[in-house]
Write a structure and sequence with these properties.
alpha/beta
């Protein structure tokens, strides 16, 4: 079994990775540590930098991710600033910004970087297309993405799906690529 350390303090990200990777023979452990987060225009750049730093700091293979919600009519905002937007304006603020806007197209992008010490990171990306809801809803998850994002082909926000179902929307393509 190949052991990988997921550098995250987010239990949901860890559970999602375990659900996807452990049946394929990967042992996923976890460490919560602060990593430098560069200012960049794309979540992929952030994930790559943080993974390389963590792999060299811990001297072992790591996974590190970054993700964001990109709203077309807001020119990609909140994008790489999704966590900041969640902490400052929250889902109510995002919905306020969307008032009167008919084009609610959006996508959630997750970049998962795998890196071994002394090597360059390899990145796997997953994109979930969808739209921004008219109102906040759901009892599962938290924040902007779960309570305002409706995945393509669905009628309700991610926050209306229990954890295991919600995680399946996040980055199945990225985890699939990682294991190939």
């Amino acid at each position: 079994m190949k052991k990988i350390t997921y550098v995250t303090g987010n239990w949901a990200k860890l559970a999602s990775a375990k659900q996807a990777l452990e049946p394929l023979g990967y042992e996923i452990d976890n460490i919560k540590m602060e990593t430098p987060e560069i200012q960049a225009d794309d979540v992929t750049e952030v994930a790559m930098f943080s993974a390389k730093w963590a792999a060299n700091e811990l001297n072992k293979p790591v996974l590190k991710n970054d993700s964001g919600l990109f709203v077309k009519s807001l020119k990609g905002f909140p994008g790489v600033y999704t966590h900041y937007a969640e902490d400052t304006i929250g889902e109510d603020g995002l919905l306020k910004l969307m008032e009167g806007i008919d084009d609610r197209e959006a996508y959630f992008k997750e970049s998962i970087a795998y890196c071994e010490p002394g090597k360059e990171p390899v990145v796997f990306e997953g994109i979930t297309k969808g739209k921004i809801s008219l109102e906040s809803s759901g009892e599962y998850g938290w924040g902007i993405i779960d309570y305002t994002f409706i995945p393509e082909g669905e009628e309700k926000t991610l926050g209306n799906f229990p954890d295991e179902e919600r995680w399946a929307f996040w980055s199945p393509d990225a985890y699939k690529e990682l294991t190939e």
